[in-house]
Design a protein that fits this description.
It is a single chain. This protein is α/β, with parallel strands linked by helices and 319 residues long. Bound molecules: nicotinamide-adenine-dinucleotide and galactose-uridine-5'-diphosphate (GDU). Galactose-uridine-5'-diphosphate binds next to helix 6 and strand 10. One of its GO terms (molecular function) is UDP-glucose 4-epimerase activity.
């Protein structure tokens, strides 16, 4: 297929773009490089530096869109909600309009566990209530809602993939390594590994008084290579007039303390941890049931172990 990958110069989008190229698709990456890197665009993909609000020319002749481009810092979204509504909802609506004008009827969208907010039960299934606790999650949920409406009204074929906590790195067949490298890094694993690299003194543990076994937040970590494969399955499964939603996690929860311990084992570094205040808006436990995507699309995590996720992220870091 001829595919447009928005945000394909970013962490997850670049891995998906690489896998799409490897699978023989004709890939164009559209990215404004606000948080991405031009050298993350895989060889073999065309690169257009532009915003998703200017996607019309790049959409000509496309069979589908994989839409990763977004603002995705929870804390920033609380401080600047307008920015998140404008980029994540406004930007996506502009993209959907341009797709319609160009006759592009297929989209796979990066949704998030943050659409659920504080869950009532664990693991979370797709039919559980969606009550986001921050504007980031709310803006992503609004896009999910818009996709349902566009599927019903215009026959769009849409899939929303609700990622839980993504980690690890991907080594493509040509040996190129695709990894997480954000100028502003909020995610746990890269922050912990930065201590082992000597780039930070210690890692902050945000809260030890949660109602969890060791008092720290529990999350469901998924390997970026496994996550990326789900996009290729979703792309094939897209059906006109339907909007499908799938959770993507490994189904097992790990606490912040457990992740720090695994990072110590993998790196052999003491990694000092400093206990700090809770981070506002963090639910205690977020664990996915990915049964629906396993059942309907045959997806299965090949590297579900946190140790492998951490080891791959660690091996990919330049020293
Ligand atoms: N990393 C995670 O754990 C996680 C979890 C759930 C959902 N997500 C979602 O997955 C997607 C990718 O996340 P990531 O971690 O790879 O982020 P990232 O910041 O590495 O990638 C996003 C890319 O989009 C580009 N971009 C941003 N706004 C743009 C715009 N208006 N026009 C064109 N390009 C734009 C950026 O330059 C960047 O290359 C995002 O939509 C994010 O919300 C990520
Ligand atoms: O330096 C850090 C960083 C994180 N944490 C804790 O580690 C856990 C994981 O935090 P991340 O920032 O790595 O990820 P989140 O759980 O906040 O992920 C949420 O935000 C992401 C976007 O950044 C995705 O959308 C994801 O689906 C959504 O659940 C949280 O309990 C957090 O408080 C720390 O203790 N110290």
């Amino acid at each position: 297929m001829k595919l447009l990958v928005t945000g394909g110069a970013g962490y997850i989008g670049s891995v998906v773009a690489a896998q799409l190229v490897e699978a023989g698709h004709e890939v164009t990456v559209l990215d404004d490089l606000s948080t991405g890197h031009a050298d993350a665009v895989p060889p073999g993909a065309r690169f257009v530096q532009a915003s998703i609000t200017e996607a019309a020319p790049a959409l000509e002749g496309m069979d589908g869109v994989l839409h990763f481009a977004a603002k995705s810092l929870v804390g920033e979204s609380v401080a600047k909600p307008g920015l998140y509504w404008e980029h994540n909802l406004g930007g996506t609506l502009a993209l959907l309009d341009a797709m319609r004008a160009a006759g592009v009827g297929r989209i796979v969208f990066s949704s998030t566990a943050a659409t659920y907010g504080e869950p009532e039960r664990s693991p979370i299934v797709e039919t559980d209530p969606t009550r986001p606790t921050n504007p980031y999650g709310a803006s992503k949920l609004a896009v999910d809602t818009a996709l349902s409406a566009f599927a019903g009204l215009y026959g769009l074929a849409a899939v929303s993939l609700r990622y839980f906590n993504v980690g690890g790195a991907y080594t493509a067949g040509d040996g190129r390594v695709y990894r997480e490298r954000h100028a502003v890094e909020t995610h746990l694993i890269p922050n912990v590994l930065a201590v082992a690299l000597g780039q930070r003194e210690s890692v902050n543990v945000f809260g030890t008084d949660y109602p969890t076994p060791d008092g720290t937040c529990v999350r469901d970590y998924i390997h970026v290579a496994d996550l990326a494969r789900a996009h290729l399955l979703a792309l094939d499964a897209c059906a006109p007039g339907e909007h499908a939603v799938y959770n993507l996690g490994s189904g097992t929860g790990f606490s912040v303390q457990e992740v720090v311990s695994v990072c110590r084992e993998v790196t052999g570094h003491a990694i000092p941890a400093v206990v700090g205040e809770r981070r506002p808006g963090d639910p205690a436990v977020l664990v996915a049931s990915s049964e629906k995507i396993q059942r309907e699309l045959g997806w299965k995590a090949e590297r579900p172990e946190v140790r492998d996720i951490v080891a791959d992220a660690w091996a990919a870091l330049p020293r």
